[in-house]
Amino acid sequence: MLTGNADGIFQRAATFSMGYRSAPIYLCIGDFNNDNRMDIVTANYGSDSVGILLAQDNGTFSNVTTYSMGHGCTPWSVAVRDFNNDSRLDIATANRRSGGLGIRLGHGNGTFANAMTYFTDIIIDPQSVAVGYVNNDGQLNVVMTDSSSDYVGILLGHSDGTFSDAIPCYTGTYSGPSFVSLVDLNNDSHLDLVVATTEEGFAGVFLGYGNGTFDIPQVYLTGEYSYPLAVAIGDSKHNVNGFFFE
């Protein structure tokens, strides 16, 4: 972690162990113990777990506490939101090897309930997870990519923190969607999908209708042999930036 000096310059990086062979691949921040400090959660694909670092008042973090998401599940991405409307942050993971959505409901004190897993017929190799209100029913929904197919799956949420089976959203032949983000790109108060497709080298924009369904994608090529891995949305006009490997 690099702490900013408020002048565009950062201090020397501080490192925090997530455990032997944990292999953290993705992280999110949130206040898991309601002390008004931002904590860290990582998706650890090497240890089939998530790791929690609770923030201290001096800018450091506690030793890691790990929570299993299930043997052999391989968490590849993590998101943080309150799924069961109890004002406590919960954790969602895209479990790549087991092919499911992992959920751990938070207790509000930095600890979490046992992992629940939701398997779908649509998503068998989830790589990315995004959370938002896609059908405007007041319940958070989850979107996951399936990098081995041509679909993203939309799981509609219920007030108790559970989810329905995935609704498929086609991303194109041999597209291999690798990353998804939810944002209102056209200012119609409906969340839209932005999907990075590793195999075909484009970012797909799916405008949302606000009822859990989306329009056919608008395709933006990212360049020959670009293989986009992720997308980021920035500034007031919601520009889309990509992260690539060649």
How would you characterize the overall build of this protein?
The protein has 246 residues and is an all-beta fold. It has strands at residues 24-30, 39-44, 49-53, 65-68, 75-81, 90-95, 100-104, 116-119, 126-132, 141-146, 151-155, 167-170, 177-183, 192-197, 202-206, 218-221, 228-234, 239-244. It has a four-stranded antiparallel β-sheet with strand order 1-2-3-4, with no helix packed on it. It has a four-stranded antiparallel β-sheet with strand order 5-6-7-8, with no helix packed on it. A four-stranded antiparallel β-sheet has the order 9-10-11-12, with no helix packed on it. It is globular and about 50 Å long.
- Shape by Cα distribution: globular
Count helical runs. Answer: 0
- Helix-strand category: mainly beta
Question: What share of residues are in beta strands?
Answer: 35-45%
Ranges where pLDDT stays below 50 over 5 or more residues in a row are: 241-246
Report, as a whole number of angstroms, the end-to-end distance: 27 Å
Number of strands: 18
Largest sheet: 4 strands, antiparallel
Helix proportion range = under 10%
- Following the backbone from N to C, one meets helices and strands in this order, namely EEEEEEEEEEEEEEEEEE
Radius of gyration: 18 Å
Mean pLDDT: 90
* Sheet with the most strands: spatial strand order: 1-2-3-4
